[in-house]
Amino acid sequence: MEASNEAEPGQLAVARGEGDAYFRALKAMEQESGAVLKAAGEYLVALVQENAEGMHGWEDGQLVWHEAAEDANGHLEIAVADLADGRFVPGLDVTVTVSRGGEEIFTAALPFLWHPFLHHYGCNFAMPGPGTYTVQVHISAPDFLRHDPVNGKRFAEPVEVAFTGVRFEPGRKPSPQAEPRGTAAPTAGR
């Protein structure tokens, strides 16, 4: 990234600071869950496989806790960062194909998932059992607008990246208590 009429050197430093913070979260996920990171095109892509987990989702205009589907025994996460400054890249169409021994297990479009410390794309899934899998990730060229006549001509091509030899272990995270603990009214800022 270089200075332009839309991004002065100090502003670019702020963006890199945001990217540094996201990278620290990626490294924490790597230590916690064995994330695997690869550069692909103009992205840094991270893959994590965890136990299936419940999530909040909209139902009749309210956020409601939903357990993972009964047959779900895995959760796949794909984090995508800008290779130039390290910031999370929102608004992407991310699709994964998981296979084992040349046999396709499933293909899924991954929605954005808000996470307390690492925003990512992901989904729960059903795997046939433990083993070594291949995860092919496809990121479409995004259709979002790009500021900046100098730095904005980016992310113009779709990207494919393969993660081979990924060890999958089936499992489910325990359900949280029915009533959330420690909820507080949101505050502005930090």
From TrEMBL:
Pfam families: Iron_transport. Signal peptide: none annotated. InterPro entries: Metal-bd_Tp34-typ (IPR018470), Tp34-type_sf (IPR038482). This is Fe2+ transport protein. Keywords: Signal. Residues 167-190 are annotated as: Disordered. Belongs to the UPF0423 family.
